[in-house]
């Protein structure tokens, strides 16, 4: 069942408190895991988000939950706390988020408080990329980086079996 508005508000209070705790503990940044089908990803993706209220439908409405989390983090930790957002750029399943969908979402998120993006691919319906093993090869998620770079000038992080050589290649 969809979360109620009251439940969403409680979740935002929890994010604010967690951000406050992180700031008080001396953390340097907060990373939001909005990928692989977790709850934030469910709001962002039409495959899972069938809501007909202000949290469903358009890209902007589906991003509302994530944007409210960003606001809660800033309230709890302050505007100077860097926020990294992890996003599955390509769910790799029929009806899942595509690279073009992700490009639009990165623009929205980047304009609203995200300081860097940690990009990957896959979801739990296609777990081979969620926890890639060596058979996927070096830098198996490199292909999502170019799309992310097209959408934002924010720093891009990327996981996926990097050797020192492939990591250097991506930096260059």
From TrEMBL:
Pfam families for this protein: Oxidored_FMN (PF00724)
InterPro entries: Aldolase_TIM, NADH_flavin_oxidoreductase, OxRdtase_FMN_N
GO function terms (MF aspect): FMN binding; oxidoreductase activity
Cited SUPFAM superfamilies: FMN-linked oxidoreductases
Entry annotated with the keyword Oxidoreductase: yes
Residues covered by the NADH:flavin oxidoreductase/NADH oxidase N-terminal domain: 3-167
Record carries keyword Nucleotide-binding: no
Full protein name: NADH:flavin oxidoreductase/NADH oxidase
Protein keywords: Flavoprotein, Oxidoreductase
EC id: 1.-.-.-
């Amino acid at each position: 069942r969809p979360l109620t508005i009251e439940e969403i508000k409680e979740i935002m209070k929890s994010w604010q408190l967690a951000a406050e705790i992180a700031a008080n503990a001396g953390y340097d940044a907060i990373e939001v895991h909005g990928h692989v089908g977790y709850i934030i990803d469910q709001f962002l993706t039409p495959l899972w988000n069938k809501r007909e209220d202000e949290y469903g439908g358009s890209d902007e409405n589906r991003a509302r939950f994530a944007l409210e989390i960003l606001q809660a983090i800033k309230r709890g930790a302050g505007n100077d706390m860097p926020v990294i957002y992890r996003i599955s750029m390509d769910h790799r399943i029929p009806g899942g988020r595509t690279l073009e969908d992700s490009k639009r979402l990165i623009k929205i998120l980047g304009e609203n408080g995200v300081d860097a993006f940690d990009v990957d691919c896959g979801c739990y319906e296609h777990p081979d990329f969620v926890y890639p093993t060596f058979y996927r090869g070096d830098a198996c998620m490199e292909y999502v980086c170019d799309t992310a770079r097209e959408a934002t000038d924010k720093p891009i992080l990327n996981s996926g079996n990097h050797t020192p050589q492939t990591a250097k290649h991506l930096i260059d």
